[in-house]
Amino acid sequence: MLGRMSEVVELRQYTLRPGQRDTLTELFLRHFVDSQEAVGMRILGVYHDLDRDDRFVWLRSFPDMAVRKSALNRFYFESEAWKTYGPAANATMLDVSDVLLLNPLTALDLPRTPRLVATIHPLETAPDVKAAVWLETDPSENDFPRLPVRTDGRKAVWFNGFETDADVEAYLTELNLNRTWSIRLKPVG
Length: 189
Fold this sequence. Notes:
Elements: E1 8-16, H1 21-37, E2 42-49, E3 55-62, H2 65-78, H3 80-91, E4 93-104, E5 115-122, E6 133-137, E7 155-162, H4 165-175, E8 182-187
Antiparallel strand pairs: 1-3, 1-4, 2-3, 2-8, 4-6, 5-7, 5-8, 6-7
Helix pairs in contact: 1-3, 2-3
């Protein structure tokens, strides 16, 4: 792994109301990607959790914490996209508090494959695993409390991409960790 980089990443996992994932996905892709990027955020990926129909997972990044605070304020308080479509998006969600604030330890080049596995593991006992992307929790205080961030201990997060479900299963078997620590994802959009 490389040393910590200055970029700040949010790994956001939303629990949705039953049957609402497609609605949120359409709203998000149509109205929230470009509008967030216009105020200084970078959308790294949007995913469906393959094991939970009620989960919407996405990642966004910021050059640093100061830009994060400014960009979040501009998007959530000033953007027409959020003013217009935010209420409809919020109506699809039950819980948006499963969010990790992360710093990349390697280049942030998420694999562009049909399947992705994200593993979230306690940092102190994270195994030495080959991964496309490594991150660790950012110790900074959340300076935008309107959007909660998990504070349940330091985490290592790594991503690997795969072509098939069989490749994913072989990787998870070889990884030999509790499966609840890994999220099987399908890119959308």
